[in-house]
Structure formats: C-alpha cells, structure tokens
Automatic annotation (TrEMBL):
Belongs to the metallo-dependent hydrolases superfamily. Adenosine and AMP deaminases family. SUPFAM superfamilies: Metallo-dependent hydrolases (SSF51556). InterPro entries: A_deaminase_dom, Ado/ade_deaminase, Metal_Hydrolase. This is Adenosine deaminase. The keyword Cytoplasm does not apply. GO terms for molecular function: deaminase activity; hydrolase activity, acting on carbon-nitrogen (but not peptide) bonds, in cyclic amidines; metal ion binding. PANTHER family: ADENINE DEAMINASE. Its cofactor is Zn(2+).
C-alpha cells in the first residue's frame, strides 16, 4: 500500500522546505531566523496565523533562482523517495522576485530545469497567489501565470488567510488565468465554513478546492460538489496539526469519500506538519481501514483532476 505509485496535487514549494534546508541557507547568507525554529529545530508556531508568519519568515532565505532550484531538487527527491510519480506544486511569484515578471521568468526557468533533472517523478507548477496579500497582488500574480502558462505551468491557485477578503475580490485574477487555459484551484473550507466554499465556486470557477473539508457541514453543498465533480485536495495531517480537527479519527475524509465527492490525499507543507505522504496513508489505514484498493481509487481520482495534458494523464492513471 505504502509502496504503490502515488499522486500529490496539493504541495507548497516553500512549505515543503525542511527546517535544516532553511537553516543552512540562512547560515550561508547570514540571515537571522529568530522565532522560526523551536529548541528541537522544528518550525515553531502555535496557530494558523503563527504558521503563516513563520512560513513567510522562512522564505526570507530563498532569495535567488539558484535557491529555488536547490529547493525544487530537494523536494522532488523526497517525494520520489516516498513513491510519488506525479506532483503538482504551488509556486508563488510573491516569493520569487516579488511578482516582477522578468524576475519570475528567471526563477521559473531555474525551477523547471531542476525539475526536469529529477528522473522518475513528473512535476507541474500551479502559480499561486496569497489571499492576505490582497486582490491587486493576486492580479499581478495571475499575470505572471498567464505569461508563463504552458507545459510546466498548468494551473493557477490561491492560498493564504481564508478569513480575509471575499472570494469575489479575486474573480478578475481567476478569470484572467482561466482564459489562458490554466486549471483553477483555491484554498477554501479549511478555516472558513461552507459559505467560503460556496463563494469560491460561485466566483472563481475552480475545478478543485484546496482542503474544502468544511463543506461537509452543509449537505446541499456536498451535493453540489458531487454534481459538479469539484475535486477536494484533502490534507488530513495539515488539518489536524492546524487544529481544524482534534485528531485523525475526527477528520471527515472517510465520510466525504462516501458522498461521492472526488478527493485526493496530500501533505500541504509536510515538514511544518511533521508528515509525509506515506505517513498520511498509514494514518488513514489505521483510522478508517483504507486499503490498497482505496488508495488506488484515490490516486485515480487525482489523475482525473490533475492539471496536465491527456498523454500525461494516461501515463499516471
Ligand atoms: N499556505 C501554505 N499552507 C497553507 C494552508 N494550509 N492554508 C492556507 N495557506 C497556506
Ligand atoms: Zn495548502
């Protein structure tokens, strides 16, 4: 079960940086990272806002295309080690040259070259705006996505603090990305309730929702997700560590699965949540008895929802 090929659709590039990687870069550049690590060297935060702050503080050491190339190599090698054959990675131009299109092209070229050099795992990039940076920044990010859309950049998404702004505020950014043919996904229904997911569907035209788990609180919304085939990128370990659910047994993933809403299992920001994809699978096996057949079904659903061309889909299904 743990050794079967896996697909991952929800992984943040910076969020996948191990603490040792960030500390090493900080040392090389003489950048102090006060408050980022606890006494054991793990990322240190106590709630979602603290998590976002530490996440952004850690990205301060990622200052060049070369840094992102090193990060990409490290992240893909880790994923490959865990049996991942296809991964979609959220990449934020905010952290890659501050949304400047020329700089973004340089960062992206380095990331793409690094990804191509890691055999045995296929990567696609989902250009991701950060909700709490606001709608204007999101539009600039969408411009970066549109200008670099192609074989590697195949999607546009949004992460960040779901409590700020309304989904409709980001409609221009998502419309621009959608018109360029990019697949669309947005975080919603993680800390926000069903209304946040509904607004995201109404205004952002997404085919996938990041997390989306709190949709389970609304039967009509679950029916809509199933009818429209909207795919939920579920990250159980992330939800437990960030306190959305008390523990894996209280997580609704098994119920969601039974409603017919398509889902995948992902890790979000694995070192922040002390997890890996095989650990997520093992926890789901323990909590809900999910077996190899169930994981194969999950990975088939992921392949169907992936932002890739038909030939790649046929390869990974
Ligand atoms: N960015 C990275 N991880 C995130 C999460 N779990 N929710 C919102 N934004 C994020
Ligand atoms: Zn996420």
């Amino acid at each position: 079960m743990i050794h079967d090929p896996k697909l991952e659709l929800h992984l943040h590039l910076e969020g996948a940086a191990p603490p040792a990687f960030i500390r090493q870069l900080g040392d090389e550049k003489g950048i102090r990272l006060d408050g980022v690590f606890d006494s054991d060297g793990a990322y240190s935060y106590s709630d979602f806002k603290g998590f976002l702050d530490v996440y952004e503080a850690a990205t301060r050491v990622l200052q060049s295309p070369e840094d992102f190339a090193r990060l990409t190599t490290s992240v893909l090698e880790q994923s490959r080690e865990q049996g991942v054959i296809y991964t979609e990675v959220f990449i934020s131009p905010d952290f890659c040259g501050g949304r400047d299109l020329g700089a973004w092209r340089d960062y992206l070229a380095a990331i793409q070259e690094a990804a191509a050099a890691v055999d045995g795992i296929e990567m696609r990039g989902v250009v991701t705006c950060i909700r709490h940076f606001g709608p204007d920044a999101a539009r600039e990010t969408a411009k970066c996505a549109v200008e670099t859309a192609g074989d590697f950049i195949t999607g546009f998404g949004m992460g960040g603090n779901e409590g700020l702004y309304r989904a409709a505020d980001f409609a221009p950014a998502f419309a621009m990305a959608g018109e360029a043919g990019l697949g669309l996904t947005s975080h919603a229904g993680e800390f926000g309730g069903p209304a946040s997911v509904r607004e995201t569907l109404d205004h952002l035209n997404v085919s996938r929702v990041g997390h989306g788990v709190r949709a389970i609180e609304d039967v009509d919304l679950m029916r809509r997700l199933a009818d429209e085939g909207v795919h939920l990128e579920v990250c159980p370990g992330s939800n437990v560590v960030l306190g959305v659910y008390a523990n894996i047994d209280a997580h609704p993933i098994d119920i969601i699965m039974k409603t017919g809403v398509p889902i995948c299992v992902s890790t979000d920001d694995p070192p922040f949540f002390h997890t890996t994809l095989p650990q997520e699978y093992a926890a789901l096996n323990r909590a809900f008895g999910w077996d190899a057949g169930q994981f194969r079904k999950i990975n088939r659903m992921a392949a169907e929802a992936a932002f890739c061309d038909a030939a790649t889909r046929a390869d990974i299904i």
